[in-house]
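Anyone able to model this chain together with uracil?
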Amino acid sequence: MSVERVQKVIAASGYCSRRKAEELIKKGLVYINGNIANLGDKVSGNDYIEVEGNAISEKQDKVYYLLNKPRGVITSTTDDKGRKTVVDLIADNRRIYPVGRLDYDTTGLIIITNDGELANLLTHPKNNIDKVYIAKIEGLITKGNIRTLENGVVIDGKKTAKSKAKILKADKKSNTSIVELTIHEGRNHQVKNMFKALGYNVIKLKRERISFLTVDGLSSGDYRQLSIHEVKKLYNEAKD
Ligand code: URA
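re: yes, here you go
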């Protein structure tokens, strides 16, 4: 390791952001070789850095979690309103973050990692990664509107890319339909807005699948680590 400012080394380790590292230094919670660090102190590979009692290693191992997100949890690393985040649900102190976003009231599959490269690959629409949603909507959807969803609807002046849509259930009694929608983009509130563009209100939304990954076997709020094999497969699918 070359000689670098201590806050940069802490951020590079994945422990926290550089700004947060600066705050911790100011609070006297960072030590270099047993001495309290000052902002701007420089360190090299021979120095021993400790932050809030944790030793900092040069490079963070990559971790990958698959969470079955419950309702009422936000897809973020922190929340200024103090709401629970998806990262709070995972017993891991590393600087992990969610890939893409699910709304507060949306449930289902979300990947949480510290691998920025994979996060970028999975969220880039050109990589054609399937994101499969199950939406319960008000009203009985028509076959014509299913085709319109597939061909793209205009949201905020921009047409959505081609998708796949399938009616799973249409219940006259409750006047609701359940639709499976497969998209490759990840615009804000995309699924809700696609239905809204056709006059349907989404009552419930779940992400069922990303590429070959599902939440099968995971109860709401549960998570598991991805295997090395699954991570490699995701890289391959995204780069195809
Ligand atoms: N589309 C939405 O509208 N909401 C989500 O949470 C995910 C996709």
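The helical segments are 6-12, 18-26, 116-123, 143-151, 190-197, 228-239.
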